[in-house]
Amino acid sequence: MIDNKFYEGFEGEAELSFIADGNKLIIWNGYFDTILDNLLDCNLEKKGILKEYFHHEGWYDDSPWLIKDKSLIIEQLKCFNINKINQTSMKDSLEEVVQAIVLFLEHNYLSKIYINYE
């Protein structure tokens, strides 16, 4: 199943995909950057996906990039704080995007999950 709901309207701009066994969640990279910036603002330890994002490595350098610690990413995403988001136009969408990513990771937990950046 391919879900590109969070990329619609952003065609032609950078996209990020979570891929697992034929399932794919495609989101606009602007959403993902904003979510990860928010998590860094929450003073979470820079490990896992936050470390890769902070140092601009991981999926930026090596795409598709295998997510090694799915539990950590799920835990980090659950710390997302909508109250720290200033862009009011994004607020509603961002909560939905975070929930969709967490659900994708949970539903595909037993599979290898990759992040692909285009």
What does this structure look like?
By secondary structure, this protein is an alpha+beta fold. The protein has one domain (2-117). Helices cover 40% and strands 19% of the residues. It contains four helices and five strands; from the N terminus they run E-E-E-H-H-E-H-H-E. It has a five-stranded mixed beta sheet with strand order 1-3-2-5-4. The radius of gyration is 13 Å and the shape is globular. The chain starts with a strand and ends with a strand. The mean pLDDT is 91.
Overall mean confidence score, pLDDT? 91
Binned strand content: 15-25%
- What global shape is seen? globular
**Largest beta-sheet details:** 5 strands, mixed
Radius of gyration, in angstroms, nearest whole number: 13 Å
Q: Into how many domains do the coordinates divide?
A: 1
Could you name the key traits of this structure?
single chain; 5 strands; five-stranded mixed sheet; globular; 118 residues; alpha+beta
